[in-house]
Amino acid sequence: MDKFIKLTSTVVPLPIENVDTDQIIPARFLKATDKNGFGDNLFADWRYNKDGSPKADFVLNNSMYAGSSILVAGKNFGSGSSREHAAWAVAGYGFKVVVSSFFADIFRNNALNNGVLPVIVSAEFAAEIFAAVQADAKITLTVDLENQMITNNANGKSESFEINAYKKECLLNGLDDIDYLISKKEMTEAYELARK
Amino acid sequence: MNETKDSPFGGKAATLFDKIWDAHVVSSVDNGPTQLYIDRHFCHEVTSPQAFNGLRARGLKVFRPEQTTMTADHNTPTINQDQPVQDPISRNQLDTFAKNAADFNMPLFFPLGHIKNGVVHIIGPENGFTHPGTTIVCGDSHTSTHGAFGAIAFGIGTSEVEMVLATQCILQSRPKTMRITFNGKLGAGVSAKDLALYMIAQLTTGGATGYFVEYAGEAISNMSMEERMTVCNLSIEMGARGGLIAPDQTTFDYVNGREFAPKGEEWDKKLAYWKTLKTDEGATFDKELVFDAAAIQPMITYGTNPGMGMGITDSIPTLDTIDEAGKITYLKSLEYMGFEAGEKLEGKAIDYVFLGSCTNGRIEDFRVFANYVKGKKKADNVVAWLVPGSWMVEKQIREEGLFDILTEAGFALRQPGCSACLAMNDDKVPAGKYAVSTSNRNFEGRQGPGARTILAGPLVAAAAAITGKITDPRN
Lengths: 196, 475
Fold this sequence. Notes:
By secondary structure, chain A is an alpha/beta fold. Chain A has helices at residues 21-24, 44-47, 85-93, 105-112, 123-135, 165-173, 177-183, 185-194, and strands at residues 6-14, 70-73, 97-100, 117-120, 140-144, 149-152, 157-160. The longest helix of chain A has 13 residues, at 123-135. The radius of gyration of chain A is 18 Å and the shape is globular. The termini of chain A are far apart. Chains A and B meet through helix 4, helix 6, helix 7 and helix 8 of A and helix 2, helix 3, helix 5, strand 9 and helix 11 of B.
């Protein structure tokens, strides 16, 4: 997993609430047996017409936002299915951070397990980002994981965000849970014996 | 809805959730999550291939193969299952699933066509893999279904599937606890599905995020295991990590005698333990909600998430009742559905009916549907997909004579699988068409690109299939 320390980037605004994982990556794209290529189908039904041509009015097809590493979405992002393909699609597209005032649990876990940082901000902070980016598409945010701080560089306002201390260490060092669990195998075996 | 304050007792009394969770803690990370031991892992073809690849890349074996049950269900056809799967990409996924089962010596592998094959959350309980007091995971959010037996059951991502295969453990932060009590009895013609859709409409689609829910009260205790599974299944649709119900005689009677249930002395030992699994008097929840079951009527959804539900005789909420930040989403949703704010949906023509899924694909759902359509005829304008949740359900449908009732009423039965619930296979509702569906999600495109889903229980689905319109089954 890639390390995440600090990032400054323009943002892609998606002020829709309850964006579910079926929108992030529709089920018909879940037939793959590897983790590659999902970024091309991120938000597929909002992004492409039936013939595969881009829908002009969808934000990912607006060249003003190209190259951004931060997605800012309405509340309850990632609800619905547990498909980790949603996190692979978000990461595969090139997003390193998703900002929302509220995340669904499973998506948030899946994102963290793929080096994508979910940043929970207040509803006001999110609303200010949406307003700022509407006024100027080139505004940037800075996300500083070490100090757990997000800054809206358009107005200079900052807000601290919560992240589990263990998960923070994992992201800062590019480690994943499975390494940790394998290191605990003896404890697991002892647990199994004790309950028999 | 009455919101009550936290229990004034506090102290040592424990909730059902606490008792099961604490019994499965292997270790705790400082300032971090818990290493939780998993008793039963269910596995399907769509969310597991990358996990097995991860094991290969790390040179790992499956730690406890006998604790994983594998069934193909999400990406399978519901016709001609005896023939090779037509879509080459789907066929590859199913072949990969079989190869993974063989390469890693998985003893409980139920591929397409196997007598124990079917929707993962249906074959688990019916074969006796689901036990009270256990921890259960699957790379599927509706794993919460198994909570009906008094288990901690929840959906996980593929990275976590890999962790369970490699170590039989995952790292989880302890969720908060919520108790939702349904006092009183459900009215005639009102089902477990209606109760769940009512609850989700009250809480909204994110209203239980961060919580593990215990369902309690007279209306819950009165339910069969099938009905309890429907309620727990839908816990995720209000964001909950999972939902569970204290095991009782109904639970024990269901589990007893099933193939993978404990037997003999082991049964007696387990049963004694299971009988201790309830929330202690005075135990504290982080949140408590109380509803009156008698106030619930048959429910339908009008929007594009399961929280957008209403009584079948109600009108869609008007724009002025929606908060400012939610207005864009609300309007987008109604535009997608082709509905107007304030509109009544009763009497509205529909095109498709889907009976099935891990929510409502069990034998009782087919009994309810068949009982309603008996002696009637399917509406000509309706395409109906009746998809049993498993081959065992299919067999029971035939044995109980339901198949003949359905056939006489103009319905055909398809073969088991997830089918039109997520439309990964060919069972897709065409763009713009309305489907009354007993499944769990009405998201945009869920049942096919452009498909318009109206979630409902099996009785409302049966009434719609007969009249071709949204119909109150109580009339």
